Amino acid sequence: ISCINTNDVQVWTFLVDGAWKQHQLAVAFAWLYFDSHNREVARRVQGLHLLSPLMADAPAVLDALCWARV
């Protein structure tokens, strides 16, 4: 049995959500990033014109991952 010391591991939490307005073909998304102490570190909200509600969360996840890479 092995244990991981959480003091040695950095835990990131991203909350992501997307919304779709059918008549405007518009997507809005937001993400929030929390550090391992559950403190908010960053957030972003953005709107885009896209053709499908399936595209609502994907840009948010990509944007959050790109931000985390920096």
In a nutshell, what does this entry contain?
The protein has one helix spanning 58-69; strands spanning 13-21, 26-34, 40-49. With 70 residues, the chain is an alpha+beta fold. It has a 3-stranded antiparallel beta sheet with strand order 1-2-3, with helices on one face.
Q: Please, could you describe this protein's structure?
A:
By secondary structure, the chain is α+β, with helices and mostly antiparallel strands. It has one helix and three strands, in the order βββα. Strands 1-2-3 form a three-stranded antiparallel β-sheet, covered by helices on one side.
Task: Detail the topology: elements first, then pairings.
Elements: E1 13-21, E2 26-34, E3 40-49, H1 58-69
Antiparallel strand pairs: 1-2, 2-3
Any descriptors?
17% helix; 70 residues; elongated; 3-stranded antiparallel beta sheet
Report the uncertain regions.
Answer: none
Shape: elongated
Query: Which structural category fits the helices and strands?
Result: alpha+beta
Radius of gyration: 16 Å
User: Biggest sheet: strands, sense, closure?
Assistant: 3 strands, antiparallel
Summed over residues and divided by their number, the pLDDT gives a mean of 79
| Strand percentage | 35-45%
Strand segment tally:
3
